[in-house]
Amino acid sequence: MPAAIRRWHAVAEARDVAGLADLLADNVVFESPVVHTPQEGRALTTKYLAAAFQVLNNEGFHYPNQWFGARSAVLEFATGIDGIAVNGIDMISWDEADRITHFKVMIRPLKAINIVHEKMRETLMAMSATS
Predict the structure, then answer these.
(1) Whole-angstrom Cα distance, residue 21 to residue 16?
(2) How many Cα atoms occupy the beta-carbon half-sphere of 78 within 13 Å?
(3) Relative orientation angle of helices 42-55 and 110-130, to the nearest 10 degrees
(4) Max alpha carbon distance in the chain (Å)?
(5) Cα-atom radius of gyration of the chain, to the nearest Å?
(6) What's this model's pTM, rounded to 2 decimal places?
(7) What is the β-pairing status of strands 62-68 and 100-108?
């Protein structure tokens, strides 16, 4: 398993938002399944991943399959939210320093996209209200 993905798994499993600072490149790009435009930079990517840790990364979250390239990986994930099965992939690329440069999330089915959109919106709004 590539070092960048080992580090990602450790951060995700611990829901370690602070650990994202060392894992994400300054110019990282995050692509969400529910936001039209790519989100650029470490601060925005951290915000979205922190919300995802709360919304998606529950007791049922796991990665059943993973595929690795030289500097990229596709991680299939599965979880459930409010009784709705959520299936998706994280497409991750990293640089020579093993820092993530691109993170794209894709989710299926439509019910899952809708519930993730709703919960992420609520979580991001709550995060904005406290900062």
Answers:
(1) 10
(2) 5
(3) 120
(4) 40
(5) 14
(6) 0.93
(7) unpaired
- In Å, what is the CA distance from 1 to each residue of 35, 70, 107? 30, 11, 23
Which CA distances in Å does 68 have to 52, 65, 108, 130, 131?
Answer: 22, 10, 21, 38, 37
**In the numeric block, which tokens belong to residue 34?**
């529910």
Question: Quick check: helix, strand or coil at residue 103?
Answer: strand
Select from 88, 49, 52, 95 the least CA-distant residue to 72: 95
Query: What is the pLDDT tens value at each position of the chain, 131 positions in all?
Result: 999 999 999 999 999 999 999 999 999 999 999 888 999 999 999 999 999 999 999 999 999 999 999 999 999 999 999 999 999 999 999 999 999 999 999 999 999 999 999 998 998 888 888 76
**89: β partners:** 76, 106
The SS3 assignment for 10 reads: helix
